[in-house]
Design a protein that fits this description.
Order of helices and strands: HEHEEHEHHHH
Strand content: 5-15%
CATH class: Alpha Beta
Oligomer: single chain
Shape: globular
Length: 192
C-alpha cells in the first residue's frame, strides 16, 4: 500500500521530504535536540543526498534534497533505508532521554518528487518561510533552525550552498526571490 503512495527515491532527482511527530507530538523539546537531529542528518543522509534546504520546527521538519547520482564506487543506495536508520537513531535517543517508548515519527515519511524548476525554487522558499508561517518568528531569516541563514552567510553547513546559488543564479537572486514571495507565506499551505 505505501509503495504506491511513496515510490522509491530515484538517483539524481529532487524531493521535498517532510514528516512530523506521531499524533502531533513534539520532535524537538529543547535546543540540544535540534543539533543532535542535524548531526544524525549529516551522518545518515548527507552520504546519499545533497541537502538544499531544511527547517526544523517543534513537531515537524522539512527538507529539500537531491539524491546523489549512482557511481561505480557507490552503485545503488537504499535512500529510504537511510532515512529509516536516521529516524530510528533519533527516536532511540529521544526515548532514552525523555523516558518514552514507541514511535516518534509518523510513518512512512512523506516525499514529493520535484520535477519542475519553478517548483523546486518554490519549495526551497516554502521551507525557509515555514517558521514564519507557523508564528515562530516575525522574519523567517532570523529562525535559527533553518538553512536560510546558512545560505545567506555562506556558512560551512550541511547545505550544498554552491548548488543552491547555481539554482537561483546568485545570492542576490536568491534574496530577491525570497523577498518577492515573502508576502505569500501564509497562503503556502499546500505542502503541509
Amino acid at each position: 500500500m505505501y509503495k504506491d503512495l511513496y515510490p522509491p527515491l530515484e538517483a539524481d532527482c529532487y524531493y521535498h521530504i517532510y514528516n512530523r511527530g506521531i499524533n502531533g507530538e513534539d520532535l524537538f523539546r529543547e535546543e540540544r535536540n535540534y543539533s543532535y537531529f542535524k548531526m544524525l542528518l549529516i551522518r545518515h543522509i548527507l552520504p546519499c543526498a545533497d541537502i538544499l534546504a531544511y527547517c526544523f520546527l517543534e513537531n515537524h521538519f522539512h527538507l529539500c534534497i537531491q539524491v546523489k547520482k549512482e557511481t561505480p564506487s557507490q552503485p545503488s543506495i537504499n535512500v529510504p533505508k537511510k532515512f529509516s536508520n536516521f529516524f530510528n537513531a533519533y527516536t532511540k535517543a529521544v526515548n532514552k532521554n525523555y523516558g518514552r517508548t514507541g514511535s516518534l515519527f509518523e510513518t512512512p515519511f512523506k516525499r514529493k518528487k520535484l520535477t519542475l524548476d519553478a517548483y523546486i525554487s518554490q519549495v526551497i522558499y516554502y521551507i525557509h518561510g515555514n517558521a514564519q508561517k507557523h508564528g515562530f518568528v516575525n522574519d523567517f531569516k532570523e529562525y535559527p533552525y533553518s538553512s536560510c541563514g546558512d545560505i545567506l552567510d555562506a556558512n560551512d553547513s550541511i547545505i550544498n550552498c554552491k548548488k543552491v546559488m547555481q539554482w537561483f543564479g546568485s545570492k542576490e537572486l536568491f534574496v530577491k526571490y525570497h523577498e518577492l514571495y515573502r508576502r505569500d507565506i501564509m497562503e503556502l499551505s499546500a505542502f503541509d
